[in-house]
Prior knowledge:
4 copies of one chain form a homotetramer. By secondary structure, the first copy, chain A, is α/β, with parallel strands linked by helices. In chain A, the strands form 2 sheets. A 9-stranded mixed beta sheet of chain A has the order 14-13-12-11-7-10-9-8-15. Chain A has a 6-stranded parallel beta sheet with strand order 3-2-1-4-5-6, with helices on both faces. At the A-C interface, strand 14 of A face strand 14 of C.
Amino acid sequence: MKKLGVAVVGVGFWGRNHVRVFSELSETxxxxxxxxxxxxxxxxxxxxDVEWYTDSTELLKHEEIEAVSICTWTTTHATEATRxxxxxxxxxxxxPIASTVSQAREILDLAHREDRHLAVGFIxxxxxxxxxxxxxxxxxxxxxxxxGTATRVSKWPERVGDVGVVxxxxxHDVDIIRYIFSDNPIAVYAKLGTLRHKRYExxxxxxxxxxxxxxxxxxxxxxxPYKIRRLVVTGSQGILSLDYITQEIKIDKAQQTRIPRHExxxxxxxxxxxxxxxxxxxxxxxxxxxxxxxxxIICEAAVESAQxxxxxxxxxxxxx
Amino acid sequence: MKKLGVAVVGVGFWGRNHVRVFSELSETxxxxxxxxxxxxxxxxxxxxDVEWYTDSTELLKHEEIEAVSICTWTTTHATEATRxxxxxxxxxxxxPIASTVSQAREILDLAHREDRHLAVGFIxxxxxxxxxxxxxxxxxxxxxxxxGTATRVSKWPERVGDVGVVxxxxxHDVDIIRYIFSDNPIAVYAKLGTLRHKRYExxxxxxxxxxxxxxxxxxxxxxxPYKIRRLVVTGSQGILSLDYITQEIKIDKAQQTRIPRHExxxxxxxxxxxxxxxxxxxxxxxxxxxxxxxxxIICEAAVESAQxxxxxxxxxxxxx
Amino acid sequence: MKKLGVAVVGVGFWGRNHVRVFSELSETxxxxxxxxxxxxxxxxxxxxDVEWYTDSTELLKHEEIEAVSICTWTTTHATEATRxxxxxxxxxxxxPIASTVSQAREILDLAHREDRHLAVGFIxxxxxxxxxxxxxxxxxxxxxxxxGTATRVSKWPERVGDVGVVxxxxxHDVDIIRYIFSDNPIAVYAKLGTLRHKRYExxxxxxxxxxxxxxxxxxxxxxxPYKIRRLVVTGSQGILSLDYITQEIKIDKAQQTRIPRHExxxxxxxxxxxxxxxxxxxxxxxxxxxxxxxxxIICEAAVESAQxxxxxxxxxxxxx
Amino acid sequence: MKKLGVAVVGVGFWGRNHVRVFSELSETxxxxxxxxxxxxxxxxxxxxDVEWYTDSTELLKHEEIEAVSICTWTTTHATEATRxxxxxxxxxxxxPIASTVSQAREILDLAHREDRHLAVGFIxxxxxxxxxxxxxxxxxxxxxxxxGTATRVSKWPERVGDVGVVxxxxxHDVDIIRYIFSDNPIAVYAKLGTLRHKRYExxxxxxxxxxxxxxxxxxxxxxxPYKIRRLVVTGSQGILSLDYITQEIKIDKAQQTRIPRHExxxxxxxxxxxxxxxxxxxxxxxxxxxxxxxxxIICEAAVESAQxxxxxxxxxxxxx
Lengths: 320, 320, 320, 320
């Protein structure tokens, strides 16, 4: 079977996981890595026996590289994505797709013009627990969905660079809520603040409302010294709870509580495998550029809401 | 020790618990009961060996009755409260204090003019778990408070009469959030709807924001076939969880999870005992008329928010 | 419907619960109570508006009394049981049926000769959770049963009188294991001791073995400052766990964990109702004198085992 | 720092974990591997860039190898251990130390004569949760210890070779109980059987008694389709529970339940690191040959107990 030639741009904390997974997958062949830190690029390259670069322009000249995953800091996503697309590479961009909505739109347009696949790294979509939650909802196992409540709190992550907790953490749950509700919100109301850290907000609370009456609460922070990543979906016939970390779901219904047992699976592996298969089969990936763009629009509206102390309507802003 | 002479007006599902507790307390002497259903009034009165009435005007003539608790349907709270205050009785009114804010204001004014004690039945204030949550927050055990999330869901309660889930259920958590945050919210954003029942909303999601950055999410419904009453408070140093039903609290911190062990105590007993002691000692009760009024104002603003799809500012509306 | 006329002998801590339940049941009419403490007998009798005695011989003369429940200290069970049976009364005896096996045999013989119903107060048989465990086993829901592990620990119970933790506490689980295994053990090996209290053993560990390979571990003590009453049954296809206190069962299988939801029911009410119905319908009660005798034999063998540091064979000792 | 030169004999399911860990540790240098399956030996050796052998006699000639870990099937432990010791190598032997007590004694004697270090692979000793349980007991945090209950159940492990569930699984808990009780048992009573598998027992229940009144229950099987590895220690002041898998401990006391939070650590890494450090520093390892021997003696006595349906005294059998 033909393997997809891939490269990773940005091999810091998270990028090196991409490198490891691409090297393990049978669907991909890792060709090279790139990092502005030459020592880092070199070390990783040697460990995995691939080529290394400090300048992505050079890397992208490599013809065997068909797809690139971008794991650099958010502020450089737009530049790196543009470069890669112009060189004809398919693209996997870590979330958030870009620093700003306008940058994100440019990436989408370019991908469209160049006819390249564009996937965005909302890894929780590939959390097997999320798929089970989605399936349970779609199969009407908890009746009509009334609300979703997502909690994503932890202490300050050393790795974080150039975005706050909204675009780094809450954005995951914004995407997941859109996904499991199969709908876009019509408005967002949010409060966010900076309790301990100077530059970016370190806590955020958001409420998303939907046309048909559904609501989502999203809480995210980098304060709480105990890591929780949880999703609770309330329906007219039951309650679904997911622990994103253990991937365990719990279904509370009138007659019983049921906790299915499953092996833990690595979401990143499932995510990059899916990306490779999408490109190889020329199919649209599960998480599209539109998904990346809409989640970012909602996050920017949340920031605006917090500044204005108003709910921000979303219908005119979001892409269909 | 002098006992407080008390009577209960409305001895349906909930009023009969007042009767039982007043008859058990050493601080009170139950004198009489009143109910529009004469059979019900008579049966209860015989069981507890007290006088019975179908007309509260008659009951209130009884001079040994110093305080009255009103457990009738919400729409009659204003009439019954007015009657009792004019007869010089101290007053305990079940929540919500009245059907409308204007009625509530009239009750407060009258209580003030008549110089009578007025307490409102926010029973969760007397849940020992709430006191422990409040103490833990005030003692800075979870650092700076960031948010509170309250969940109060259950199947349709047969008993419910003449208000929806906002004023019947969510109002408890509105009050508890005000209490544990020691502050009034500055705005409310809400979504509510009617999924299964015709007349009143049967689900509601509310987000309350506070001046200093704190936020509360409140979810209440009469849909979910599994009863949950839970409060989670996120702080910069830890997370507090309370199960209102078992009264158990859990404190998650960086180093450990701690679950103190306490005997379950009946909140209603603690509540009515506190009321009796407040009247006997001529001290202001823990839950004042102002508390009852402000919670109702917030609930009405939540309804308005849902209708307008806007966040409703509260500062001008609430009493200090 | 004809009601069964009943009386309670011994109205201390536990006997007063019998009084309350007999007064609540529609199947029984409480006629009188008896206690050597005249103040106690009088107070209870007045509360429930029945006759009171300090001498059971006098009580038993009352012809309307058809059945008697004996809640006195264990050392007087034999005397009280003999008296009641000789007066032609049906008998409910609290566990343990008697202080010694020989006394127990005499009670059984007398009940047989007098043709009276004899039930023994193994209240856990009427714990709805036990019935669910028994049903699940009998319906082969956890495959072949391999073992049962029972834990019954708590701090020193003030009420306890004249037997140690083996005959007071562990005896419940001895009976439950016989019941859910539908078999008698062939041997017992036990260790017991006195860690904090002078007169009676306050901790006991027992292992029961069965012909077909099943085993039971029973742990009981009056030391642990945290009350646990739990039963775990391991089978070839799953594990059943019961919390006797909450009555909740949990079924762990390969594919899932399932926790059925049920309303809590008062075991004493179910137990005395069953007793009354058995007598009224002239049917053998669920817990017979043989059950009371065999559990006591096993407990005495456990004491013997601990003294000799040997496993004690049971087949020759137990009644079929 | 000087590294310890090591080799692994037997690189099947478990041995390859030794290989990986030895290659990761800074204290050891992996020199070679040996397996009767040449393909397996070669593959592993290539992955880790070390030498490979199919005959341990050849491997042992390698002078840089100072210590050998033996991960072959149990029946060959004696032969391999003898070979290695005679070549002057320090020895780490996976549990059980040997198939029979007499073989185990020969290994101990030889190690003594050759003055070589001998450690036995009771990996649970290096489970950080066990250390916390041991510390809590030693610091008197649960008062006087009354009993320990260990549960180790799972479905049939494909890997298992040539011993039954007693010597493969229960032996871990036999060792842990000896360790946390700081004492040897005086007797064992056991029941074991074969429910699903032909050759070896697939379930075992054991009760160990101790001079001072302590008791342990050990349950092990290869039947239950849900993996549980748990230890509960009951004391006069509290209860300690350990989940061996998550390494989480829980301490239930009168006033509270406390669950300390710790990062998961790989027991095998801690175990082999400790072994290397012991050899390098010429100190006795935590788990000695005596520990390996005594656990095996107790397991053989358990088998004897089940055959005879008698408790087997241990004091004369065990090494001090």
